[in-house]
Amino acid sequence: MTYRERLEAIRREMKSLGIDAYIIPSSDPHISEYLPDRYKCIAWASGFTGSAGTLVITADFAGLWTDARYFVQANEQLEGTGFELVKLKTQGAAEYATWLAEQLPAASRVAFDGNLASVALAKAVKDALLPLEIVVDGHVDILETIWNDRPILPTAPAFLLDESTTGESTISKLNRVREKMKSKRVSAHLVSSLDDLAWLLNIRGNDVPCNPVVLGFVLLVGNETTLFIDLNKLNDKDKGTLEGSAVQIKPYAEAFQAVSLLDIDAILLDPKRTCFAMYDSVPKSTKIIEDLNPSTSMKAVKNKVEAAHTRNVMVKDGVAMTRFFKWVEEEVTHGALSEISIADKLQKIRAKGNDFVDISFDTIAGYRAHGALPHYKATEESNAVLKPTGLLLVDSGGQYEDGTTDITRVVSLGNITEAEKTDYTLVLKALIEGSQLVFPKGTRGYQIDAVTRRPLWESLRNYGHGTGHGVGFFLNVHEGPHVFNPTNVDIPVEEGMISSIEPGLYREGEYGIRIENLVLSKGFESNQFGDFMHFETLTICYIATDLVDKSLLDDKHVQWLNNYNAWVFEKLAPHLDTDETEWLKEKTKAI
């Protein structure tokens, strides 16, 4: 079926079920950002492949609500599908609920699949519609009846990590979570989010592209812990190890029934990381305490073992990035490079490194105008051929058994304009401002976001995405609970958190610039005014200086850049061939 035919099939099913509006979120039963193929419902229905969005379908309108990161991409991918782009004003907000409230009369029926909607989303829809006497049904999966070749759930094996890699045993982590449960006065806790499950049980898998997680639920009731998972995913040795940590193992499909049969006073659930269908299966006699999963905060703070492994991973990744950019520079004049071919080459170079498992997200290789699309992924139709002129933006990362990387660099392929130099230098200046920041303990991400943006704001420039996000340890490249963006998220930056700092600037139809490093938050100094923190830069890859307009930088920025590039050379040179070392030496010369 074409996308228009799929839309009409959905509308026919809606009509037969008496549904006036149908909502399709971008999610799965674990409220994941990146999805197994079975749950890529928005892509199947509309052709939009971004990782954030919501479809809303009525009898006479079909829209995709998404944020500024995807406006250009959505306009291109939705053309001719019958769906229209609706631009979100606030990233992540359920603004479509307000739209439905304005469009639908009383007694209308709105439905969605509760397996794909978080508790928070379901409540936002209900809060907007129920007071208007609009019926909301969160237990309707329309796609299951019309998606004839819908993929099955993934069957790839899972595996356990040794404590020498993770720095903490499963028993210790479970005990820490139980202490939090006691403070919340609950006797049960359900973990639905896959990265929380992976961290808690020191387990990894291959069920989601680029994210080393395995589908499952963890239910803690009193002193008992149960993992619900496809039993074929674990070998006997790993099953024995989990059982030795007092973890029972039961079939994945039994999780919902287990929750529905609970006979307890109270259960702890994270409303943003639990699907509505699971929430609704909790017995009515059980009080639900809604709060952040304790493991989410614990996971965000890396221990010394994780931090040490990550530093080693950055050397491996820096070597790969050096070889990649040297290759691009040497090959671009031959006219054989394209956005897809260089992304493939980068993955192959990374794969030669020790303990490489996968890329950590689809590589964004944006040449010239495509660099202005923050979440661009080249297709056969859009695949641009590189020429020895203009800017190339590459945002990429790797999953290694001992860490996760995420890095963005912009390089000149030749004939750079003064406007491009100015924009590049201001973005670099913003990166340096964020990286050099010393801040009081308790500082929130929105404060770091504002400080980082200051050089761009002063020149009347800005960017539409956040300044940074948490990064997992051999886990999801986007990890909470902290985030560096303008949203007033009341989560302090704690010592041991790994975050990205990635300011950008985008001129639609021309070029895009983003420079990204990962940093580790650390204690700095304590005095009569309080405890202060700073960042240790982790990413090890040269920052191009031929694009820098030195006149726009203060001495402290120049010093930081020179020191950073000198450090990059010092760390990587011992791992490079002679010609690679000479090439990098030239790239890291002081300005």
UniProtKB/TrEMBL annotation:
Domain of life: Bacteria
Sequence ranges assigned to domain Creatinase N-terminal in this UniProt record: 6-131
Limits of the Peptidase M24 domain: 310-520
Gene Ontology molecular function terms on file: aminopeptidase activity
Gene3D superfamilies xref list: Creatinase/methionine aminopeptidase superfamily (3.90.230.10), Creatinase/prolidase N-terminal domain (3.40.350.10)
CDD domains named in the record: APP
Residue ranges of every copy of the Peptidase M24 C-terminal domain listed in the record: 532-591
Protein name: Aminopeptidase P family protein
UniProt organism field: Sphingobacterium chuzhouense
Lineage: Bacteria, Pseudomonadati, Bacteroidota, Sphingobacteriia, Sphingobacteriales
